[in-house]
Amino acid sequence: MKYLVALFLLISGGANAQAIHYKSILVDTHNDCITACIEKKVSLDQDLTGINHSDLKRMKTGGLDYQLFSVWCDGEKANPYAWAMRSMDTLEAVANRNPDKIVIAKNWKQIQKALKENKIVAQYGVEGGHMIEDNIDRLDTFYNRGVRYMTLTWNNSPSWASSHTAEKDPSYTGPKGLTSFGKEIIARMNKLGMIVDISHVGEATFWDAINTTTKPVIASHSNAYTICPVTRNLKDDQIMAVGKNGGVIHLNFFSGFVDSNFSKKDAAFRNNHKAEIDSLLATGLQREYAFTMVSEKYPVESEAIKPDLEQLMQHFDHIVKLIGIDHVGIGSDFDGINSAPKELKTVLDYPAFTQALIARGYSNKDVAKVLGGNFLRVYRINNPN
């Protein structure tokens, strides 16, 4: 009998998690599906099962309500500003073809209307300050197109800020932290209502940004350094500073930022398939997507080295312990990563994250905060219109 009771509780708990999940507003602050679609020559309004982590139909089926679409190119791409505009053109074309499913919302009224009509709210996050090409007026252009955050650096560094990669590179000769121009950029972002994103930045840049901004920041896709010590994750003093600032840290699903043992396993996998990766790079494919495509080609090998969802939740627990439930959200990095926890394969799997929250005993109100409420609070402070 006790086994039947346990089974009933498990099933009813899952049903409760599903109900809470679909009732809550789910915001994901980082998805690279625009770039993935361009690189793979597919469209987001197609069925991309087995091709991408995301497509419009599966996003909605997974309970997604509000997506910040990453606008990204690496530091090797020529004309990054033109690439950014092309990326936004790509999503805009999808939205124009599917006005009943997705809306590029540029003010609070449009956001509320889209949510009420059960459409996906779409906005952009520019992933890397190099994409303005040192022209501060391009922030205005981006904002007018629907960009609502900019990551100050990607792994490369613009002339005015140092990335996490640069700050640990002994050969780096650029500025450490923000230059005076970098601080002007943050001031312009605050004025526009564009959220400052501190994922990817170096520690010097992080502290300069925290001390310069007048509005809450986000980490759009970062985890806890104490759990997984890589420079893309945030140290405890940084986490506490984000909490004091009123900002939100959005958990990144990438296995390498979840599990400290993953990088060695992944390096071995890449070495085993080096010839195929090099062949893809020779076609002009960006490096991150060459890795992703090879990972998808060998799913059994890829699956074997992934962490479990519980390991991601350790990051969640650590951040909540330091700064509370009001400062955590989701920034999956879907379609920008080649590996995620085993239970989080695609956008269909968002409910598994909610189930993990329910299993930890969080209230419906707390779950709603994590899934989207915390981001919406920061959004409204930055952008009240």
Overall radius of gyration: 20 Å
Count the beta strands: 9
CATH architecture assignment of the largest domain = Alpha-Beta Barrel
CATH superfamily of the largest domain: Metal-dependent hydrolases
| Percentage of residues in helical conformation | 40-55%
Write down the CATH topology of the largest domain.
TIM Barrel
Content-based structural category: alpha/beta
Biggest sheet details: 6 strands, parallel
CATH class assignment of the largest domain: Alpha Beta
Q: Could you explain the architecture of this structure?
A:
This protein is of the alpha/beta class and 385 residues long. It has two domains: 2-271 and 306-382, Metal-dependent hydrolases (TIM Barrel); 272-305, no CATH class. The protein is 50% helix and 11% strand. Strands 1, 2, 3, 4, 5 and 6 form a six-stranded parallel beta sheet that branches. Helix 1 (2-23) crosses helix 17, helix 9 packs parallel to helix 10 (236-245) and helix 13 crosses helix 14. The longest helix has 22 residues, at 2-23. The N and C termini lie far apart (57 Å).
Give the structure's gist in a few sentences.
By secondary structure, the chain is an alpha/beta fold.
